[in-house]
């Protein structure tokens, strides 16, 4: 397998994980587990950002690296509107609070509003991948 083909497969892998994480967020929220749904929303965005950055030749092993690179390589050059960078930051921070602070859990209705926004972000990131040599994921 060529390096380009390997990267295409990795991009597709990460986007599929993003889609599955979003499906899981829907199921967790429907089951009344908003904290787990919040976690899955963040991971959906994280996996999609990972795929998009990888499609452009960037690979990171830490969440902070993906977050910074999303701003540096996608928001700053105008490929992704600044509001979506701010949204990514919000989902990151909300997940951090929900996962690591005592007695913090998001409201199911807040997560229910978040899920379609994460879905929209995935669509925007998928379109950026489609613009690269990696093609549609």
Describe this structure in words.
- The structure is a single chain.
- It is built from five helices and no strands.
- Helix 1 runs antiparallel to helix 2 (34-55), helix 1 packs antiparallel against helix 5 (108-130) and helix 2 (34-55) packs parallel to helix 5.
- The protein is globular and about 45 Å long.
- It is an all-alpha fold.
H/E topology pattern: HHHHH
What general outline do the C-alpha atoms trace? globular
N-to-C span: 18 Å
Instruction: Give the fraction of residues assigned to helices.
Output: over 70%
Count of distinct strands: 0
Segments where pLDDT lies below 50 for 5+ residues? none
**Could you tell me the strand content as a percent range?**
under 5%
Main sheet, how many strands, which sense, barrel? none
Radius of gyration computed on alpha carbons: 15 Å
Count of separate DSSP helical elements: 5
Average pLDDT value?
92
Q: Structural class of the secondary elements?
A: mainly alpha
Highlighted features:
mainly alpha; globular; 137 residues; single chain
Fold blueprint:
Layout: H1 3-30, H2 34-55, H3 63-75, H4 82-100, H5 108-130
Helix pairs in contact: 1-2, 1-5, 2-3, 2-4, 2-5, 3-4
Provide a brief overview of the structure.
By secondary structure, the chain is mostly helical. Helix content is 77%, strand content 0%. α2 (34-55) packs across α4, α2 runs parallel beside α5 (108-130) and α3 (63-75) packs antiparallel against α4.
């Amino acid at each position: 397998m060529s390096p380009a083909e390997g990267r295409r497969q990795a991009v597709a892998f990460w986007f599929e994980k993003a889609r599955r994480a979003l499906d899981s967020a829907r199921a967790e929220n429907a089951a009344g587990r908003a904290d787990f749904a919040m976690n899955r929303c963040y991971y959906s965005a994280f996996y999609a950002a990972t795929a998009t950055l990888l499609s452009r030749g960037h690979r990171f092993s830490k969440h902070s690296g993906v977050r910074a690179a999303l701003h540096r390589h996608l928001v700053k050059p105008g490929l992704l509107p600044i509001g979506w960078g701010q949204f990514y930051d919000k989902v990151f921070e909300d997940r951090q609070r929900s996962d690591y602070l005592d007695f913090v859990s998001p409201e199911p209705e807040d997560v229910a509003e978040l899920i379609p926004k994460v879905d929209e972000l995935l669509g925007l990131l998928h379109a950026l991948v489609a613009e690269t040599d990696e093609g549609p994921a």
